[in-house]
Q: What sequence folds into this?
């Protein structure tokens, strides 16, 4: 594991502080149009926040999964969808829907919209920030109101945020998953997905005493790219004054130093068999990180070659599969 020098940490702190000041100011000035409010709004609800554009094929699974965890309210910004996403969200009684046609890139990849909404609606509350192709997994998720029980557990341990690195699945039929209406058949389809084991490694140690996750199938997919994908995420956080995300849910500021015994995973469904179709619009791709470099690789169809890349890849078996990676973020592998 390559050591990180003190100078690197100082530079990173300065850059993060400057970025924080700029994004905080931009977030407080952000404007999104309120279209429709959720029918039930309660103070005890944990709120989920998302930005979407043409995510109709993924939204049903994402919403159903997080509803099954006990999420009862979603705050979603639609950024000019034309595939039926906007109309679908209008029909969801637990969604407070906003829209904007502003540049996703100029909004710091949607972060300013999310920060604005989190500060307006979730001060002093727990907020979940996810993408439409992410599913949150954690210990105890099979129980009723699991996410509420998770939050109570975190508060007892004085954790104010939740580390859940991304784990990419691949070689699964995402089209079939979108066509199935019930949640359990979607999970059964997902059990056909592949899941890397040997290509993940521990990275830098974090302030919560856990380690970053490196590698995985996207690193193999992007081996010729200069920047490896960032798998660090903090999707669940207790919102306090002036605390904002500065890099999607990859990073928030000001940082909080606390030891974590509870952590989870974000199962990432970006690399399905039909991923190339979802990433084939150059006008959308140039709005993303690195002007869509990673998404262009996916659009080329390279994803379908991943299955031969790791001889130790196994089929996904929910939390049991993710348990195999626990030692990695504990820095033992």
A:
């Amino acid at each position: 594991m390559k050591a990180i020098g003190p100078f690197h940490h100082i530079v990173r702190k300065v850059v993060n502080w400057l970025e924080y000041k700029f994004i905080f100011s931009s977030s407080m000035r952000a404007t999104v149009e309120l279209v429709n409010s959720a029918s039930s709004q309660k103070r005890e609800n944990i709120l989920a926040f998302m930005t979407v554009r043409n995510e109709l094929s993924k939204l049903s699974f994402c919403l159903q999964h997080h509803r099954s965890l006990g999420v009862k309210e979603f705050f979603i910004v639609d950024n000019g969808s034309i595939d039926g996403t906007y109309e679908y969200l209008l029909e969801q009684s637990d969604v407070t829907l906003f829209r904007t046609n502003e540049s996703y890139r100029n909004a710091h990849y949607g972060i300013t919209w999310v920060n604005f909404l989190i500060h307006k609606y979730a001060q002093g509350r727990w907020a979940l920030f996810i993408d439409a192709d992410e599913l949150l997994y954690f210990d105890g998720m099979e129980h009723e109101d699991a996410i509420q029980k998770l939050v109570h557990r975190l508060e007892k341990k004085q954790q104010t945020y939740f580390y859940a690195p991304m784990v990419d699945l691949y070689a699964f039929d995402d089209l079939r998953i979108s066509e199935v209406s019930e949640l359990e058949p979607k999970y059964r389809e997902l059990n056909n997905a592949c899941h890397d084991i040997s290509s993940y490694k521990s990275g830098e140690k974090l302030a919560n005493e856990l380690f970053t996750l490196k590698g995985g199938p996207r690193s193999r997919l992007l081996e010729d790219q200069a920047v490896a994908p960032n798998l660090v995420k903090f999707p669940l956080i207790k919102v306090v004054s002036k605390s904002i995300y500065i890099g999607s849910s990859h990073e928030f500021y000001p940082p909080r130093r606390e030891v974590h015994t509870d952590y989870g995973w974000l199962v990432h469904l970006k690399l399905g068999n039909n991923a190339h179709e979802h990433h084939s619009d150059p006008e959308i791709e140039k709005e993303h990180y690195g002007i869509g470099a990673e998404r262009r690789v996916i659009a080329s169809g390279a994803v379908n070659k991943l299955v031969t890349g790791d001889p130790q890849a196994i089929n996904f078996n929910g939390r049991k599969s993710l348990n195999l990676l626990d030692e990695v973020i504990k820095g033992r592998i």
In short: The chain has one domain: 6-329. The CA atoms of residues 43 and 55 lie 29 Å apart.
